[in-house]
Design a protein that fits this description.
It holds the Pfam family HTH_18. GO terms for molecular function: DNA-binding transcription factor activity; sequence-specific DNA binding. InterPro entries: AraC-bd, Homeodomain-like_sf, HTH-like, HTH_AraC, HTH_AraC-typ_CS, RmlC-like_jellyroll. This is AraC family transcriptional regulator. Keywords: DNA-binding, Transcription, Transcription regulation. With about 290 residues, the protein is an alpha+beta fold. The chain has 2 domains: about 170 residues, Regulatory protein AraC (Jelly Rolls); about 100 residues, Orthogonal Bundle (Arc Repressor Mutant, subunit A), CATH 1.10.10.60. It contains 10 helices and 10 strands. A 5-stranded antiparallel sheet has the order 1-8-3-6-10, with helices on one face. A 5-stranded antiparallel sheet has the order 5-4-7-2-9, with no helix packed on it. Strand 4 and strand 5 form a beta hairpin. The two termini are about 30 Å apart.
Amino acid sequence: MEINSAGARKLSETTVYVREAHRYTYRGDVHEETRVGYTYAFHLFFHGQGRVAVAGRSYPVGPGSLVFIRPGEAHSFHLSSAAPLEAYNIYCDLWGKPDRLFSRFSFQTSRPDPELMPSAVSCPELEALPVHARVPGHSPLTDWFVRICGWHDPSDGNAEALVSSLMKAWLLHAHGELRSDFPYDRRIARLLERMEWEPEARFSHEEMSRECGLEKSHFYSLFKSATGMTPKAYQLRLKMKKAAALLLESDQSVTRISEQLGYDTVHYFSKQFSDFYRQSPTQYRSLRRGGGL
């Protein structure tokens, strides 16, 4: 595709090519220090605390933090404690697949190669995306991001088209969602944030509406408007997401995980998990466990 650097383009005109998409654990290694990328990079953090420096500015990151780094922007990753920082990372080209596919980065020990930088394209919608944002747990942006990382497979010819199409959809949705200063009622937003941090807690409909200072019917309406789900369905979704994370990121037994999530019996937990993911907890761990570089 021929790119005219002088003409502005719409986000819907992007021709996305996903070079790499994977889970990654930051441990303070040398290659996480100052570097410059040749691609558009998106980092969605799901565990740990730290900071990411981009173009001379430092941003705090933790679960739900999204960092968007443009080609040519110097950046680095910094842990805030001895605990690792974990993220899903997507590196992509937005205006067609480049002819040369070499290193994604130039590290501090070498100068960036201008010939590897993508052509300059004016896209006001892309420029409006923030460097740093928080993605709510209920947002489809989170699920789509994780799916892209799970489906990316260079050896599968169909996977390239699949993840590229989903990444374009992700960008279009992100343009609308991440540019909104506050897309839903602040009282509901505070409750959602608490629920995301404590998915194992048992919140009754009455407790949630009382916490928001709303009548039950009004609360239900606002909650469903913000999440697209009933409070009960949203609670289950958060609990299942944490269960999946614990299965993949720890060696705890299924019984221990069910107890940690507040279940009275492992059998009920296993049934809910199987209904939600169409796989038992043991199958889910066995089939999906692993990480990328």
